[in-house]
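U., I forgot to send this yesterday:
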Amino acid sequence: MTTQQLLEQIHLKKSFLCIGLDVDLTKIPQHLLALEDPIFEFNKAIIDATHDLCVSYKPNTAFYEAYGIKGWHSLQKTINYINEKYPEIFTIADAKRGDIGNTSSMYAKAFFEDLNFDSVTVAPYMGKDSVEPFLAFENRHTIMLALTSNEGAFDFQTKNVDGEALYKTVIKTSTTWKNAENLMYVVGATKAEYFAEIRKIIPNSFLLVPGVGAQGGSLSEVCKYGMSENIGLLINSSRGILYASNDIDFAEKARVEALKMQTEMEVILKNKY
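Result:
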C-alpha cells in the first residue's frame, strides 16, 4: 500500500485509528476457547465489527509466537483474512526486528512476501545495515522505533550525546538511508511534548503512536503537536478496544469503543483540515 492510498482511507473513513490485535487467551471471552482456533476467531470478530472505523490493524507478533506454531498459524490466518476481505486496510506487523545484513533481509521477506504485511516495526540500534534491507521493498513501509512510551525509554533515547538527544540523532541519521522515504516512526503518546521537536526533523513522515488510552496518552495533545500537513498520524489502541467486554457481546462493545475514538478523530480532522 502506498502512503497516498493510506491517506485516501483516512479521509474516506475520517479516522486515523490503528487497532492493535494483541490477543491474550487469558483475557478473551471464555466461550471462544472451545473453538479450534480461538485467537483467529477473536480477531475475525473484532475485525468484522471495526473495519469501517479504523484504517489499520497491528498484530504484535509476540502474542502469537507465545503459542508456538498454532499461534503463528493464527497470525497467518488473521493477515490473510484482512488482505482478502478488507484489502483497503493498512497492516502492521509489530515485530520490532533488528539485525544485520542477510538476517534483516530474511525478516523482511518473512513479513513482506510470505505474510504480505504492508509494514513492519524495526529497532534501529544496529544502524543502517539493519534497516535498509526492509526499506528495499517497494510500496512497503518500515516503522522505526524513535521515541517509545515505556519507562525505560529514558535509559538511552533521551540522553544527550554530543549536545543532542539520542532519539533526535537516530531520526536525523535515518533520513539519510537509502529508500528513507519508506520510513515511518514509532513515537509514544505519553511523550506528547516531544512531538513538536520530532516534527522539526521529519515534518511529513507518518508516526505510529501507541499509548493513547490505557497507557494514559492524550489524543488531543498528540494531534496538537504531532499532526503534519498530510495528517501523518496513526493512533494505536489495543486493550481499550479489544477487551471492552469479555462476554459474548465482546465484538459489539469493541465497536462502541472504536467508534468513540473515530468520532473524536473526525472532529479533529474537521477542525484542522
